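User: Hey, quick favor. My workstation is busy. Could you predict this chain's structure for me?
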Amino acid sequence: MGMLIRIFLFAILFSCASKPQVSSPAAKVAPTETSYPKDELTAHIKSYESSGHHPGAFSGFVLVTRNNKVEYSMGFCCANFESKSIPTANTAFRIGSVTKQITAVGILKLVEAGKLSLTDKLGDHLKSYPEVGRDVTIHQLLTHTSGIPSYTADPKVMENRNKDLSTVQLLATFSSKPLEFIPGTEFRYSNSGYAVLGAIIEKVSGNTIVDFTNNLFSSVELTNSSAAAPASENVAIGYSTEGNQVAEAAPISMTIPHAAGNVYSSAADMAKWTNAIWNRKIISKESLEKMLTADKQNYSYGWMQAEAEGYKVFFHGGGIDGFSSTLMFVPDLNASIVVLSNKENFDAGEISKAAYKGLVGKKIPLVTKMSVFAMNKDELMAHEGTYRITEESKKTLSTLGLAPEQIDPIGEIIITSTETSLFGKPKGQPKVELTPTSPTSFEFKQAGIVIDFAKDKKSFQLSQGGLKIQFEKVTP
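Assistant: No problem, here it is.
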């Protein structure tokens, strides 16, 4: 989930897809502040509509700042598709896993107050937590090195995500499960770790995670940011897309994402938040250094980091029912990029990468148009059926470090069709549209996935990056 994600098709194989492309270090010559290519970025964003890529036109808000000056600020229809309202810089969106850095700041504030230590064990604060995870440290929870299995990989939890759970009930969905590895030895993205951090915050502070988070926002005057529920009526509605149809996303109780992804925020507030962190308005210099020190897989406390076009970039993506988001900060340029979309199928990371090109003086290209292969109803219907991952491919994923609980959500895919479209649906997850590029090949561009069916339609190969996974048909 990069990222608390409504497990998009094959999201587990897509955990790093929103990272900026890494380049060899180059001379750090910053473009002048007046040179940001606003028209190029607008043209790039608008070109999604005619590109043929699912889910079509971008809906949301994009903000780019540099040296506390707004370089780019624009909303794209619609915050509400019924009223056709355009989002503003102050419109609140669900930000999904971008919430994690907010939770991390909360933990560091409690460390500064002397109420806990990063080396404390989970069991030091949650006395009733099962023995299996009691020795996991707070640092390991923050860096996804705890080994605690992620509850968002559990279809039973996600199928009932519209139901409220208390913190105790949420932790009970995963706390008794075996650890996936010895804590501290591996990296595996886990929303459970951040839910546990939320529980620790509640225990140590004496406040609910909602009140604690809202108090953090108040301390730096973020008036359009809040946990669990929007702070005002200026809020975007979340949507899903199927073909050319846009519909309100399935409901989710914000008790489910908890401290891993329960925040609403606006583009203006997110830029202000990054400024507060880097200028030590909310945490100390020592805490900031701890927050940005990378552990395994270049993940620190709620931030991913990479070298791109010669600059160190800190970023995180978020995906949750109805929404997709990316927050990026470039310290050497004192620049932030915020992309908030209220289409859950849209990859906000793609626009953030385009916006980043403008910051470093690179040309921002238009989106390449997809070559779509026309197929009739019968041709599409011939691909229908339930397909299951082969044992050999399961072994391949296991060798890459995926646990059975993580493989299970992508282990079975149901292929269905309409008169004009083909869809793929992993069990317990929403279906997404697959675009035909040949009589036997289909593409899910958002995740960089290609599905190649065998001529007899009894199997297919799923390719993403250099990974190739085999599926066999088990029912017609």
